[in-house]
UniProtKB/TrEMBL annotation:
Top-level taxonomic group: Bacteria
Purpose: Pyridoxal 5'-phosphate (PLP)-binding protein, which is involved in PLP homeostasis.
Protein name: Pyridoxal phosphate homeostasis protein
Keyword check for Ribonucleoprotein: no
Modified residues (N6-(pyridoxal phosphate)lysine): 29
Cofactor annotation: pyridoxal 5'-phosphate
Location of the Alanine racemase N-terminal domain: 5-218
Record key words, sorted: Pyridoxal phosphate
MF (Gene Ontology): pyridoxal phosphate binding
Pfam families xrefs: Ala_racemase_N (PF01168)
Family: Belongs to the pyridoxal phosphate-binding protein YggS/PROSC family.
């Protein structure tokens, strides 16, 4: 199929361009399970979705060794629908949410990995922790206040702009916070960079990138 041929080419190109230490989260939101399966068959195991309803629908249709990452804003009352199977929640943007993830993880007798989403963009963004809040939550985590959660890193999104200097500045801020917090306890994952800015994010220290449209093509609905 024409579409699959593109998918394969896109995926191989990106994989071969990524440094070995950089993890790829293939962002499959809005795309059908068959397309995800195509990329899975090429070897990809980590996929990102931004909506609970969508991830809950796709999960049973796809192989069980997929590591699902939630990358979009998560409402507290929806954590229970994904707590049993989600690998990583990248979008922790409040203490209330972190508490609920901890509670739901306990119910399923597991630990859920999370990233703290930090507001780094200059533009007004709805979601994300202020830098001081992220630091506070990490200290609380180190004090064992969230025993069923593993805070493994940070996630951030740069301003949507053509201005590379602006983007670089924002990514650099997040890398600095990552290094600072890593002095308390080493964090593993610095998730920044999407289709249009991932090479820059990697230059700035990202070791995990979230790439959607450059693999799957443009989304009709965003
Ligand atoms: C959609 C999305 C991405 C991927 O965006 P692309 O531009 O398609 O690569 C990455 N991160 C988040 C949080 C997203 O919602």
């Amino acid at each position: 199929m024409q579409e699959n041929a593109h998918l394969e080419e896109n995926y191989r190109q990106i994989i071969s361009a990524l440094p070995k230490n950089v993890e790829l989260v293939a962002v499959s939101k809005t795309h059908a399970a068959e397309m995800i399966k195509t990329v899975y068959d090429l070897g990809q195991r980590t996929f990102g979705e931004n909506k609970v309803q969508e991830i809950v629908e796709k999960y049973p249709q796809l192989p069980k060794d997929i590591k699902w990452h939630l990358i979009g804003h998560l409402q507290t009352n929806k954590v229970k629908y994904i707590a049993e199977f989600i690998d990583t929640i990248q979008s922790v943007d409040s203490k209330k949410l972190l508490l609920e993830i901890d509670k739901q993880a306990a119910k399923f007798n597991r630990k859920i990995k999370v990233l703290l989403q930090v507001k780094i963009a200059e533009e007004e963004t709805k979601y994300g922790l202020e830098i001081y809040e992220a630091k506070e939550l990490f200290v609380e985590f180190l004090n064992n206040e969230y025993p069923n959660v593993d805070v493994v890193g940070l996630m951030g999104m740069a301003t949507f702009t053509e201005d590379k200097n602006q983007i670089r500045k924002e990514f650099t801020v997040l890398k600095q916070i990552f290094d600072q917090l890593s002095l308390k306890q080493q964090m593993h994952t610095l998730s920044m960079g999407m289709s249009n800015d991932y090479p820059l994010a990697i230059e700035c220290g990202a070791n995990s990138v979230r790439i959607g449209s450059a693999i799957f093509g443009r989304r009709d609905i965003v």
